[in-house]
Design brief:
443 residues; mainly beta; Immunoglobulin-like; seven-stranded mixed beta sheet; binds CU-O-CU linkage; binds copper (II) ion; copper; membrane; Multicopper oxidase family protein; oxidoreductase
């Protein structure tokens, strides 16, 4: 079933799940006869595009756009029709971080059939969670996301808790271009300039659509991280512009700052290249030279503000506990001798399945015994981080994509409140494609 030559989906397989499974999960969709409040059409199609630098990408896109934005109001019934025009191996849409009913989760061969060229599929779910999310194809995701099949999914809250005057959504991604790999915000791989009136509060929605964690620096103003993976931080503290932060692959932060009377620079990574990629916010006129500072510390979510939801205490009794040891070894996969990424020494589909019952409290421990980071992404649920390296964190935070660095151990908790069959995998999608994924299943 994983033979690449056979045309079966390889990132998220099919085959060993029987049809009975698919019938069962489709019962979990909820009442889709309710009329939609927000409707979108996304047509998966190839399009050559040119980045700001002139580098050319043979992109695979939704609607021929780079990272299109879908926007809804909290509480809306959202309906998104996906049509595949010409992506040969088929596409889907996975709502990354969004706790949709299982049949809407977009995992081919598991929650739906892949959408082949000429076919369509309609996603419908109620947008209960407000915040910054994103979506991407889950068919051969390593290749399809790298080529551009992703966009942002923004749900505006019924009631805004943190006021802002302007918002900017920024999705960082590394493109394979005719001039090599280029890091960009959307299709902007050069420094952008944006005029903002001093005194205005700017909200940045940052989404890491790249295949590795991404460091950000915001310089020229104090700032606050107001939400992590779509979940608001209560009483966020002010951070100095000497503090860098790092987004997990697939992770999101909302960041806000008040525009001062001098420029503010948001830049990606270690580069001090004045031509970007990054954004320069300026008041009256853009400065002639861009000054870079070096950072002195890295943001640590385990001691910041207060989490919005924390039902977990030291006294919580868990119904089930699982341990995942993240590792690597050499071995055969898809008929090729390869470097494999393993969970408890196994590669998917031989990795363990987490079996839970609805309503149970689950604790999962991640132990990274490899030399790479692994952003662990759980579908359909939100995890609360309780312990890091054996010690309780000061402020448990809610995440759907937790970056686990080499030698780190994390304990996370979640409630089994969304029945179905779900993926839990590394969001370095090349790692997932050679083993690092497993299933969460309801008994
Ligand atoms: Cu963002 Cu299973 O993926
Ligand atoms: Cu990994």
């Amino acid at each position: 079933w994983m033979d690449e030559g056979s045309g079966t989906p390889t990132m998220m397989m099919s085959g060993h799940h029987n049809h009975a499974n698919m019938v069962e999960v489709s019962a979990l969709t909820g009442d889709v006869s309710v009329p939609a409040d927000t409707t979108y059409l996304l047509v998966a199609q190839k399009r050559e595009m040119t980045l700001a630098s002139g580098a050319v990408v043979e992109a695979w896109t939704y609607n021929g756009e780079v990272a299109p934005e879908l926007r809804a109001q909290q509480g809306d019934m959202v309906e998104v029709k996906l049509i595949n025009k010409n992506i040969d191996k088929g596409v889907t849409i996975h709502w990354h971080g969004y706790d949709v009913p299982n049949a809407m989760d977009g995992v081919p061969g598991m929650t739906q059939n892949v959408v082949n060229p000429g076919e369509s599929f309609t996603y419908k779910f109620r947008a209960e969670q407000a915040g910054t999310y994103w979506f991407h194809s889950h068919q051969q995701a390593a290749e399809q996301v790298r080529n551009g099949l992703f966009g942002s999914f923004i749900v505006e809250p019924k009631k805004e808790t943190i006021r802002y005057d302007e918002e900017v959504t920024l999705i960082n991604h590394n493109w394979n271009t005719d001039q090599g790999e280029r890091t960009a915000f959307g299709d902007q791989d050069r420094m952008q300039r944006k005029q903002v009136e001093p005194g205005k509060i700017i909200k940045l929605r940052l989404i890491n659509a790249n295949n590795q964690s991404q460091k950000y620096l915001l310089q020229g103003s104090d700032y606050k991280i107001t939400s992590i993976d779509g979940t608001p931080i209560q009483q966020p503290e002010s951070l100095s512009d000497q503090t860098a932060f790092r987004l997990a692959a697939g992770g999101r932060y909302d960041v806000s700052f008040t525009m001062p009377d001098h420029p503010v620079l948001l830049k990606l990574g270690e580069s001090t290249d004045a031509e970007g990629p990054g954004i320069l916010f300026y008041g009256d006129s853009p400065p002639d030279t861009i000054r870079f500072q070096t950072e002195s510390s890295l943001f640590d979510p385990s001691r910041y503000g207060k989490p919005a939801v924390n039902e977990w205490t030291a006294a919580t009794e868990f119904d089930r506990e699982f341990t995942m040891i993240l590792g690597n070894r050499m071995g055969f996969y898809n008929g090729k001798f390869n470097y494999l990424w393993t969970i408890n020494g196994e590669v998917y589909p031989h990795t363990p399945t987490l079996v839970v019952k609805e309503g149970e409290k689950i604790k999962t421990t991640f132990i990274n015994k490899s030399l790479s980071e692994h952003p662990m992404h759980l579908h359909g649920h939100h995890m609360t981080v309780l312990k890091k390296n054996g010690k309780s964190v000061e402020t448990p935070w809610v995440t759907d994509t937790l970056n686990v660095n080499p030698d780190e151990t994390y304990e996370v908790a979640f409630t089994a409140d969304n029945p179905g069959m779900w993926m839990d995998h590394c969001h370095i999608l090349d790692h997932a494609a050679v083993g690092m994924m497993l299933h969460l299943m309801y008994d």
